[in-house]
Automatic annotation (TrEMBL):
InterPro entries: DAGK, DAGK_prok, DAGK_sf. Its EC number is 2.7.1.107. It catalyses: a 1,2-diacyl-sn-glycerol + ATP = a 1,2-diacyl-sn-glycero-3-phosphate + ADP + H(+). GO terms for molecular function: ATP binding; ATP-dependent diacylglycerol kinase activity; metal ion binding. Its cofactor is Mg(2+). Substrate binds at R9, A30, F31, R32, Q33, E34, R55, E69, S98. ATP binds at R9, Y16, E28, E76, E85, R86, H87, K94, D95. One of its GO terms (cellular component) is plasma membrane. GO terms for biological process: phosphatidic acid biosynthetic process. It comes from Gilliamella apicola. PANTHER family: DIACYLGLYCEROL KINASE. It is found in: Cell inner membrane. This is Diacylglycerol kinase.
């Protein structure tokens, strides 16, 4: 069977992405928490007189956390699909995904602290 090409492929990819978002919201607690964090952050960032570049950095950093969380969740799904037995490589794959989320969160927190400190304590 031929795979769709052109606009049809793009439309299908978008549908799969929406399906992924819905699934992440339904099944992934961490993703839901990060989505709430993004909404709260958006309100905070819009209420404070940050430059457009600072706003992009602040909100973009949370977007990066969400992207990494989705990738981590995908890794966990694949590992869990393989089988319930414990295996060193499966554990390492999950740990690496978790470490990536942790690093993205640390980067985000550091960026937020720095930009807020620069803004309120110049």
């Amino acid at each position: 069977m031929d795979k769709p090409k052109g606009l049809k492929r793009i439309i299908n990819a978008f549908k799969y992405s929406l399906k992924g978002f819905k699934s992440a919201i339904k099944n992934e607690t961490a993703f839901r928490q990060e989505l709430i964090m993004l909404v709260i952050a958006y309100v905070i960032v819009m209420l404070i007189d940050f430059s457009i570049y600072e706003r992009i950095l602040l909100l973009g950093s949370i977007g990066v956390v969400m992207i990494v969380e989705l990738i981590n969740s995908a890794i966990e799904c694949v590992v869990d699909r393989i089988g319930p037995e414990r295996h060193e490589l499966s554990g390492r794959a999950k740990d690496y995904g978790s470490a990536a989320v942790c690093l993205s969160l640390l980067l985000t927190v550091t960026l937020w602290i720095y930009l807020f400190a620069c803004h309120f304590f110049p």
